[in-house]
Known about the structure:
Alpha-Beta Plaits; binds flavin mononucleotide; 12 strands; Rossmann fold
Amino acid sequence: MESRRTFLKKSALIGAAATLPAIPSGCTISTIEANTSIEPRKINTAAVVWYSQTGNTQKCGKVLAKTFEKTGITVINGEVRDVDRIKISEVDLLVIGAPVFYYDIPDFVKDYIQSLPDLKGTPVAAYVTFGGPEGNQHNAACSILEGLVQKQGVPVGLKAFMTISSYALNFKASDKEISPKPKAILPDQNTYKNVRAYAEFLNSEVEQGHTSVFKKTLTSREFSTYFGPEWWTKLLVGNHTIIEEKCVGCGTCVEKCPTDSIDLDTFTVNTDNCVLCCGCINNCEYQAVNMEYSKEKIIGFKEFLKKNNLKFELPVELRT
Ligand SMILES: Cc1cc2nc3c(=O)[nH]c(=O)nc-3n(C[C@H](O)[C@H](O)[C@H](O)COP(=O)(O)O)c2cc1C
Ligand code: SF4
Ligand code: SF4
C-alpha cells in the first residue's frame, strides 16, 4: 500500500506541476514569523538538540551548548531521540539542528518537531549543516523554524554551516581519490568560531526581546523537493544489502536507520521503506553494507575519509 508520505509527495508533485507557470523563481513561498512577541529576558535554561548522521551537526550542536554553558546557562543537549520532549519545551531557548538531505531537512526531523508539545511562545532557533554551496540550505533551515512556529515557538535565529559532504552516492569505490582535494576539511576551527558567534547572537537576541522574520524563496532546488528527490534517486540504486561475510552484527546500521529497514537475521534491506539517508553505509565500520549507484559500487563516509586521508580537527571544547 502507498504510504501517507508517498501519497502526499505525489499530490504535491501534481499540485506543483499545476502551479508551475504561476510561480516565478525567487518569489517568497512562505514567511516564517512569530505569532506573538517575547519580553526581553535572561536565558537561564536552553536546549540544543540535533539529528546527526555522521557527526557534523552533532559537533556544531555541542559547541553551541558549551558556549551557552560558559555564560552560566543550564543546557539540555543531545540527539533528538535521546532528549525528553517535555523538558526541552520548558526552556528559555530551544535550538534544533539537522543536516540538509536532498535539499531539505530529513522527514523524520519534521516528524520529530511535529511531535513536540505546545512551545507557548518559547524563543526558537535553527541551524543546518550542509555539504554544497547550492544545497538549498537556507530553505532547509526555514523548514525547522516553520515546524517550531506551528508549535507556537518564536523565531530568533537561523544559520547554516558548510561541511564536507557525507552524500555517499558520490563516493565511487573505483575512484582512486577525490579530485579536486577540498581546500578545507569542514567543519574546521573557523566553522566553530561561527558557531560560537551564533550562540552569542541568539543569547543577545533573547535578552533584548528581538524576534526575526525569515522567508523561504522558490529556487530550482526547492522546487525539486516537491518531487521527492530521494525516491527518484532510489531508481538508480541497486544491490542494497548487508554482506553476511563482512557483517559482525554490531547493530550500528540498525540503530542509525530511521525507518527500521534493516533485517540482520536475513541480511536484507527493505528498499521500499528505505529513504536513502545513507545512515547504514556511512556508519558501518566493516564495509558490510553493499550499495550500488548507477551500477557502480559506492563506499560510506567513514571509508571515504580514510581513503582520502581526511581528518577533522576537533573544536577546543570537545578535546579531551
Ligand atoms: C542522504 C544525504 C543527502 C544529502 N543532501 C544534501 C543536499 O541536498 N544539500 C547539501 O548541501 N548537502 C547534502 N548532504 C550533505 C550533508 O548535508 C552534510 O554532509 C551534513 O553536514 C551531514 O551532517 P551530519 O554529519 O550531522 O550527518 C547530504 C548528505 C546525505 C547523507
Ligand atoms: S553496521 Fe555493519 S557490521 Fe554492524 S551490523 Fe550493520 S552491517 Fe553489520
Ligand atoms: S536502510 Fe535506507 S533508510 Fe535505513 S539507514 Fe540505510 S539508507 Fe537510511
